[in-house]
Specification:
The chain is mostly helical. It is built from seven helices and no strands. The model has no long low-confidence stretch (mean pLDDT 77). Keywords: Membrane, Transmembrane, Transmembrane helix.
Length: 134
């Protein structure tokens, strides 16, 4: 068992994904192959294996550079072609900590645009019919 754990841990994040997929399928090889094939899209099983390799490379870069820095760079690049309001809304819906959301929002828009306030409530005007004074 220790040997198996060492080999899987050598694969990093793709190894973990593979173990989770295998466990979820109950050890059924056909289910694991189907999962890898679906991940691979038009490239099938080889594409799925390639995707696991890509996840390993991305995982190493993220671990070395930091998730916050990578997200900042991604949103800086996207803000060149996409609406800042749209990106702010997208950041709000991300499954990350509120602190990281605030940092990302401030990074792409130093003056954070918030949802417009309702403003003052409309005034109530009462119209009274009076008879003219004579």
């Amino acid at each position: 068992m220790d040997e198996l754990v060492k080999k899987i841990s050598g694969l990093g994040l793709p190894g973990i994904l593979f173990v989770i997929a295998t466990g979820a399928s109950g050890g059924n090889v056909a289910a694991v192959v189907a999962m890898l094939s679906s991940l691979g899209g038009p490239l099938g099983l080889l594409g799925g294996l390639g995707l696991l390799g890509l996840v390993a490379i991305l995982g190493e870069y993220i671990a070395g550079f930091g998730i916050e820095n990578i997200l900042k760079l991604i949103y800086t690049e996207r803000s060149k072609t996409e609406s800042v309001r749209f990106l702010l809304k997208e950041i709000q819906e991300l499954p990350i900590s509120d602190e990281l959301k605030l940092k990302l929002k401030h990074h792409i828009s130093p003056v954070v645009v918030t949802e417009p306030d309702e403003g003052p409530f409309p005034r109530t005007v009462e119209i009274v019919d009076e008879e003219p004074l004579t």
